Amino acid sequence: MLVVGCSGRRLLAVMLTSKDHGSEHRGDNDYIDLGTGPWDAKGRPTEVKLDRILQVSAADMRREGSVLNAQRFGRVAEGLRRRHRWT
What is the pTM of this model? Predict the structure, then answer.
């Protein structure tokens, strides 16, 4: 998962997947390609699923993570704004 913000004491996150959804047409903008990065030990291309926002307790986080660079995170943030009509 990718943490994208917080709401009170909860972290807000979106799911990551290594399955390619480029040919699916569930919604106009349900997925954003992130490419590869240190978050996947196998080096698989990763996509972010935008249609569901998860609320997670920080105490429930178990794994180490990595930080997206500003450009990739900006693409995710813009995708979330478009998908959920956030301003």
Answer: 0.84
